Amino acid sequence: MRQTFDVKGGPHIGRQNLPLLRDLLQADDLDGFYVPHEDEYQNEYLPAANERLAWVSGFTGSFGSAFVFSDRAVLFIDGRYTIQAADQTDKDLFERIAVPDPGPFGWLAQQDLKGSRIGYDPALMTPNDVDALFNAAEKAGATISPCRTNPIDRAWRDRPVQPLATVYPHALEFAGQSAEEKQQTIAQTLVADGLDAAVITSPASLAWLFNIRGGDVACSPLPLGRAVLRADASADLFLNPDKCDDDLRAHLGNKVTLLPETALEDRLGALKGQAVSLDPSLASAWFFQRLETAGAKIHRQLDPVMLPKARKNAAEIAGTAAAHRRDGVALTRFLHWLDTDAQSGEVTEIDAAIKLETFRDEVTGLRDLSFETISGAGPNGALPHYRVSSASNRLLERGSLYLVDSGGQYPDGTTDVTRTVPIGTPSAEMQHHYTLVLKGHIALDQVRFPEGTTGTHLDTLARHALWQAGLDYDHGTGHGVGVFLGVHEGPQRIAKGWNATPLQPGMIVSNEPGYYKEGAYGIRIENLQYVTPAEPIAGGDRDMLGFECLTFAPLARDLIDLNVLTSAERDWVDDYHQRVLAEIGPGVTGDVRAWLEQACAAL
Ligand code: ZN
Ligand code: ZN
Fold first, then answer.
1. Residue 394 shares a structural domain with residue 539
2. 221 CA distance to ligand 1 middle (Å)
3. Is 90 exceeded by the pLDDT of residue 2?
4. Structure confidence by residue, pLDDT tens digits, 501-551
5. For the packed helices 349-361 and 314-339, what is the interaxial angle rounded to 10 degrees?
6. Among 2, 99, 118, 549, which has the highest number of CB atoms less than 10 A from its own CB?
7. What's the confidence (pLDDT) of residue 100?
8. Which ligand has the shortest distance to the CA of 476?
9. Which residues, by Cβ under 5 Å, contact ligand 1, an ion?
10. What are the CA-CA distances from residue 4 to residues 181, 399, 601 (Å)?
11. Distance 502 CA to ligand 1 centre (A)
12. Domain check: are 265 and 329 in the same one?
């Protein structure tokens, strides 16, 4: 099994470790300490050695933070973790506050902490977060103080070792461009911007820039490391030497110097007087403080790898499409199982997640899941980021909806797909809501838009049908997706909040509108699609862009209310299902093939 459903952590951990941290804070002359969930690499998934919030509190959720003082400790969690946090932390030790209201810094600003010194680890926070902490502390009458070494790391006995998965070359046939060429191209942009070097702090960026992959964190083949690329296209790559072998050295060539991460501090010091780019949304405050101390001229700007990485080349698109065809076979076999065996009402969310994983495991090339499967039955489906555990596990009951959001990592591409299916007979209300979500999905699939359009401009299309019914959903509509890299990547995004990056050919985005009825059910339909030049439009006088779909798996025809669809939308569903049959049909046989033909028949 690639996923575990046991909840680790628990209140005994906080009881044991909180006093150890407090002892060190006292020794360091600190009255408080800020503990974010994020680690040095600002990744979604952390290695066990960096789960500092779990170490101090016992809370193992993927989002949260805490303030620890000598006489009180406060844990800030997202609403989806309310129950888990109550199970895992001792209420006598940790007060629990659900964010965003008011958030850790908003809370701090309202406290009376005159004369207190609050410590923080600059390696774990972006400069924006440090500014917010500073301002909040000032309002509370406190000061903040960066810690040279994290007191949790010093107090942590039996800390797991940092991951040491071998870093390996990413094949040119999947990358579509050699690492040397990529370094040359990015170096030219540094020259054009008047920069001497770029400090690359994001593991996903260095994976792309050097055509390498690793296995240091779950669900994403990232090599944890850093790099400095210079304007002459030479580079320093900082990786633990235990992760590097001769294959890797041969692949990197002689313009790349491999160095241990312990050499990073010195090498940054050597950038004195140079113009260096650093991305404040990706790099921690530690990098800024280090480069300022060294006397480098810091240019706060987008990591120069981000845009080229987001604009996939033809080989990356072809690989991603091929990965989706194979992944779609596993998903189709699972949807068939949901429509037959799982209609009994006796299957649980965990059974279903395991079943889906079993089908994916049979797909050629599967390296990992791209995230932990969201397997949400009935009211659990109404929690958009729900993670099933043995404590929350529910039956897929008849008369309910089941939502499943999942994906796989393959050497040629990364998938992310959501389907919502009825268990038993759906209500007319469920059908109505599903069809409104589908209308939004279709609108965003079909749109033509001029150059310069950003995801923010398009977001409304996916919500329009819901808005006219007085409904909405509280998450973004689309995120970027990597190629055998992170399932969530920028800089483009389709959401209400302003995003300044125009959608450009080759960018992959998800299209995932939803509707959530609290305490009852959740609905989401998610396909991945990529930006491509659109066919010329008769009578039009501008070049237009559009989307090409990557994800093929049947929609839930029993949830579609034909009275709510226009005839053009109905045609879209029929065309889409014809493509599903063409792309996935050859990969399935017997009962599944027969079922797929029915599932894809014209409405
Ligand atoms: Zn998804
Ligand atoms: Zn997604």
1. yes
2. 18
3. no
4. 999 999 999 999 999 999 999 999 999 999 999 999 999 999 999 999 999
5. 130
6. 118
7. 67
8. 2
9. 405, 416, 418, 526
10. 41, 28, 37
11. 22
12. no
